[in-house]
Amino acid sequence: MSQVVSATTTAPAGAATRRDIGVKRRYAAERRFRAYGIAAISFGLLFLFVLLNSVVSKGYTAFQQTMITVPIEFSEKVIDPTGKRAENPNILVMANYPVLARDAVAKVLGVDVKNRAAARQVSELLSDSIRVQLRDIVQANPSVIGNTVNVTLLAHGNVDSAFKGQIDLSVAESNRKISDQQLTWINTLADSGALSKHFNTGIFINGASSRPEAAGVGVALIGSAYMMLIVLVLSLPIGVAASIYLEEFAPKNRFTDLIEVNINNLAAVPSIVYGLLGLAVFINFGGFPRSASIVGGLVLTLMTLPTIIIATRAALKAVPPSIRAAALGLGASKMQTVFHHVLPLAMPGILTGTIIGLAHALGETAPLLLIGMVAFVADYPTTPMDPATALPVQIYMWANEAERAFVERTSGAIMILLMFLLVMNVGAILLRRRFERRW
Amino acid sequence: MSTSILLLLVFAIGVVAYVLASARANALAGGKPSNLHSRYGYHGAFAAICAILPAILLMAVWSLATPAFVENRVRASFPEEVKAMPDATINLNYGMVSAIARGMSGLDAEERSRLVAMPGADARALLADRGVPLADDPQPYMVKAAVEVLDLSATNRLILTIAALVISVAGAFFGLRSVAPRFRARNRVESIILASLVMASSIAILTTVGIVLSMLTEATHFFRMVPAWEFFFGTVWDPRFASAGTSDSSGQFGLIPLLLGTLYIGFVAMLFAVPIGLFSAIYMAEYASPRLRSIAKPLLEVLAGIPTIVYGFFALTSVGPFLRDISAQINGIATGDFVNFIQAQSVLTAGFVMGIMLIPYVSSLSDDIITAVPRSLRDGSLGLGATRSETVKRVILPAALPGIVGALLMTASRAIGETMIVVLAAGVAARMQLNPFEPMTTVTVKIVNQLTGDLEFTSPQTLVAFALGITLFAITLCLNIYALYIVRKYREQYE
């Protein structure tokens, strides 16, 4: 090799005397190798971009909802034909509210409601949830009966999809969810300003629903919040205590070795195994209710603990021994050294690790499926013992729905989830930047 | 008195003990803290611990023990003809008794006495009205037993309240009495803290024990119904959901097709993830400018932070249909017949998307290992005239190989345990075939399938999930232990 080098350096002049050591070929190989590297990184980034793009492009419309605003005549003839509502409050509950809305929309469109087929088509423009909406209006204020009020009604999921241009209109009318007649009506209503898109608050506050236009992640958000709270309250103290023991106090023996190996392995156990553990121990043996956020919280705590312990140990290790030596030298006990000096200095690292662990727990789905959080929950859970779902589980359930409008909702829910994760991760990064010390 | 109020009271006593003991220690010091062995806060903390800890331990033991005690007493009081019934019936009856007791606890004294006198049907209606529906009309002895349950629980609660408060106050007094200049309060408090630290760290072991024990017990139940060799070597997966009431295990539970699907999908995923991840790691470690590195590395790691359910949805709605359509186009151009040869749910779809998910694992683990190779090896190779790529290929990679193999094994264990992507993108048909364009299924998919929905812990259809789980746990555990062993062995070389 050295001979080759000297040959090239001592005889720079004549190309004929230069020995061919394949420099060209080797440089080409170098360039190829470099290109592979760039290609690999660009592939990775491209996939990231495509993934986010596909979610956002499908999902951003979920934050808008088509609504129809029409003057509704709260006719006494429809609500209370017998005039007995004073004696029997059930009449107001059972009244045929959808007819009120249908008649109002038909009047705006100039459709004769006596024509049954047309009337049915008109009522298909509106969501089924308007029954509850109108009932609530009337029950809150019974004096509205007999008057005409402008009400903004939720449009049906198909109307919503059609108005957002998500329904393929080249398909034959009979195979479509929406008829040509309804499309004309939608356009008429849109032109008159009665039908328009509003910001969709429902997706944030509504519970589960089989109707896409009325479905939301409200219950899932509450469930996830409960679980994150439980995970935080349990795993942070336990994780920090465990790492302090292992890092600062534990003697080097079989037992601590065993714990170490254990923690490393637990961090790599598939999450679904934790679900099986939760099912067998907490639900089957411990008698906790299925679908409750407390079980989810406990399972996620066990799953997050190894992450937090590993991060905390790294943070404790990063505190220089001189700090400990100084504290001990001034007469502090071992425990005082750790709790008064080492732990506060390691806190930013610990919190960063905790936030990242929480973010992982927030996106985890598989163990929650096994403990029965795949449930149709329409009511808000008031305690962690009540049935609830979680954000990723809600996404899973919606992903299995066939309707077009649910694809949009699913992507919207994913955007909400990613937004939470983004906030948490950015928070962790800022925390690290702000408080990290280099010794 | 409810448990939470009792807990609050005990804590209040603890706080009082803390304040009093610290004040006493402060007074004893007489303005010179060095007169005391421990600072006054430690004396306070010791008193507080004495007041709180024993009382809480008592409450914990009590609340674990009393339900069993009450149940035994009440069961013993059942009429003879009920006791003669089979165990399952007695259990059902006891379930009703506790439901009645739960309903009665919401009634006031007058309603309660009325309920005891009522005929069964009325009592059921009344309880249903209060939100406790019963499966059947309660018989008179059940109502009587329910009253006994309530009485016993009330007595228990009273005893517990008194005992806990007495112990708490006694503890507080003990703590107060022990305040003295020479008393080593700090050492006592610190040893209690140390004990709690040890307990916290043994939770890791408890979790592992819990995982292994819970899955082993359920899996043994399963193997009692289905022979182990039929499970481990069976080639047909057809669990056949049991019809209600029958517990015959007519289904076939062959692990092989599931394992094959798992490994196949994992293999396809590694096929995508390893080259891309490895080349990005090499580029980041050896070529990239600090600027590019500081941008590209976190961006790639974003891929690891995205929840797997999102990947699953991406595979289901974007990648799967895309591959299906493009295969139809290719087929159309090649043969004129526009039929797709790639299914929307297929080994390829799941493997590809899982591969994307695994890229950051491969790249960041290998990046760490490549940068850990000592500078001198690099300098030596470059100094001898090797190009960068030759240095990487001939010097760095061989030196880093054991570590990289360890990293790849860890990644593979992640691929095997991955659930949500395969649940949404791989399909549910358990088949033995080698066409990557067809759907296959995995162990994790079947665990989810067998355990979602209503389940009873007696049928093999449900219990098989635990046998699958323990298999999965064993495989990933072996991979990880082997990977850790390789990585550790490798690390020692340069230290």
Could you explain the architecture of this structure?
Chain A is mainly alpha-helical and 439 residues long. Chain A folds into three domains: 2-59; 63-207, no CATH class; 218-435, MetI-like fold. Chain A is 64% helix and 5% strand. Chain A is built from 19 helices and three strands. Chain A has a three-stranded antiparallel β-sheet. The radius of gyration of chain A is 32 Å and the shape is extended. Chain B is mostly helical and 495 residues long. Helices cover 76% and strands 1% of the residues of chain B. In chain B, strands 1-2 form a two-stranded antiparallel sheet.
Write a concise keyword list for the protein shown above:
heterodimer; A: 439 residues; mainly alpha; MetI-like fold; 3 domains; three-stranded antiparallel β-sheet; 19 helices; 5% strand; extended; disordered N terminus; B: 495 residues; 2 domains; two-stranded antiparallel sheet; 18 helices; 2 strands; 1% strand; flat
Q: Please mark out the parts of chain B with pLDDT under 50 across 5 or more consecutive residues, or reply none.
A: 243-247
Which H/E pattern describes the elements of chain A?
HHEHHHHHEHHEHHHHHHHHHH
Q: Could you say which structural class the secondary elements and strand pairing of chain B correspond to?
A: mainly alpha
Residue-averaged pLDDT of chain A: 86
CATH second-level architecture of the largest domain in chain A: Orthogonal Bundle
Largest interface: A-B, 90 and 87 residues
The total of beta strands of chain A comes to: 3
Overall form of chain B: flat
Gross geometry of chain A = extended
Assign the CATH superfamily of the largest domain in chain B. MetI-like
Side by side, the strands of the main sheet of chain B go: 1-2
Question: Could you give me the name of the CATH homologous superfamily of the largest domain in chain A?
Answer: MetI-like
CATH fold field value of the largest domain in chain B:
MetI-like fold
Proportion of beta-strand residues of chain B: under 5%
